Amino acid sequence: MIHKLKKFSKKMGRGLKQEYEETRDIPKYIKNKEYKKAAQQVGDIGKMTFLSTLWVLPGGGVISSLLVKFFKKLRPSAFKEED
């Protein structure tokens, strides 16, 4: 069980780091007129905000986990699994 938690925390850390780096690049995308990439990243920020606010609610961790499991489009791009 501890091994799974360590693996999960490393995966989350890598995903959060990637999202942070992509978020920093939004001004560069806009400057280079790559509006689709900038819009996708803003959408990822919205998804992260939505999932984060669910954690505040009682039982929110379970609810957000179920939503992410069954609705794969709710995952930010850094957390999508490659098929």
Structure description:
With 83 residues, the protein is an all-alpha fold. Helices cover 72% and strands 0% of the residues. The protein has 4 helices and no strands. It has helices at 2-24, 26-31, 35-54, 60-70. The longest helix is centred in the N-terminal third of the chain and has 23 residues, at 2-24. The two termini are 25 Å apart. The model has no long low-confidence stretch (mean pLDDT 83).
Low-confidence stretches: none
Tally of strands: 0
**What fraction, in percent, of the residue positions are helical?**
over 70%
Structural class: mainly alpha
> What is the H/E string?
HHHH
Major sheet: none
Total number of distinct structural domains: 1
Supply Rg. Answer: 14 Å
Alpha carbon gap, first and last residue: 25 Å
Count of separate DSSP helical elements: 4
Share in β-strands: under 5%
Give the mean pLDDT.
83
Global morphology:
globular
